Amino acid sequence: MRLADAYAGEGYSGREVLVVEAAKVGGGRSRSFHDKVTGREIDNGQHLLMGCYYETLAFLRSIDAPIDEAIHFQRDLALTMVKPGGKTIDLACPALPAPLHLAAGLLRMRGLGLLHRASALRAGVMLRGEIERPDDGETCDAWLRRLDQTQAVRAAFWEPLIWAVLNDDPLVASAAMLVAVLERAFMSTRDASRLGVPKRPLSDIYVGPAVDYIRSQGGEVRFASPARSLDLDADGKIAGVTLKSGEQLEADTVITAVPPHALLAMLPEAATEHLVFRDVARLEASPIVNLWATLDRPILGPLDRDFVGLVASPLHWLWDRDRITGEGSKDTNLLSVTISGARATVHDHPEALREVFVQELERFFPGHGASVRSFRVVKEKRATISHAAGTYRRRPPTRSPIPGLLLAGDWVRTGIPATIESAVQSGHDAASIALGLR
């Protein structure tokens, strides 16, 4: 929870800032921790940035985060998908202006037949006319069928993209949210579609520099200080926050940066009956399961990629963390595995997930010869909100119905899916309102 935004430090805007955080450390769902199983500092989940994450990059620059050393951005968009048996489908976009770079990349995609490449190219050409459509009620599946996309190009390009950016099944995910991403990533500049992979732990990139910045501007950060309730005055305006310790904090502006269920738990009971908060209560969560496996040898080396996607697999993405970070040794290789929209696996026992991992490695990299030395499962049961069709209208605006209460978080109504970019944009929007800039 924020009682004003991190940028609104006393030395910067004249506003007194206090950040109260329930956990002992910051970061929320973008954090890292020391893992005894792998013996490494690992993230709660693998994050990926895009060149169009303008709000995120502005935030990182503002807090003096080590962007160049901590995040590797591709020169041009490149992506490798692995099919069962080990053959690959490779997308490499050339250095052409957007959206010609995507059109050329799709047309030259290796590992797909001409019919399927032509199908993808046709969709790319149509995007400019489709950009205001579909509405939020249409699913990605229905939209792709409307664009006559073949099953092969769906499996190799569209569906991995949907799982990655929407964290939901293409059968239910909103096509409007997908198009919002496509517009930002592929229709503005070539650099906007580049992928950025964090090379350092997330806490080193986001959390440490942010806390240092707030304190350097005269603000205060308190950890292990969970909030119990939002306090209103007799006129129904925000008056402050009561912590679980019983301490009462007075404030005429409160910015919350908590998940939907936590916000509802802090509201006065009468406020939860407002239509905005009733819609918030209807938002559902979509989980992510992350697997961390230490192998006795690398398996992605021959592909010369930091990460690859798997076509038609319960495991969506494999990341070679040793290659990304430059750590590891000749005898070990740390893999991070992402399972998005993991409703079917989030309650599985770690041994069952290990068995799936071993089977999928053999299916996609036959004869790899690697053995699993350690295995760790990290589950984020509320990783994001679900982006099911029809959900966007339930996401609340930054200005809440309660005067003085502003809402932030990746799940508020930012116009894009619940990503780190959405989270940062929501914080910027809330800070602008708090400072009277909009």
UniProtKB/TrEMBL annotation:
One of its GO terms (molecular function) is oxidoreductase activity. This is Carotene 7,8-desaturase. It comes from Plesiocystis pacifica SIR-1. SUPFAM superfamilies: FAD/NAD(P)-binding domain. PANTHER family: BLR3003 PROTEIN, PROTOPORPHYRINOGEN OXIDASE. Residues 14-432 form the Amine oxidase domain. Signal peptide: none annotated. It comes from the Bacteria.
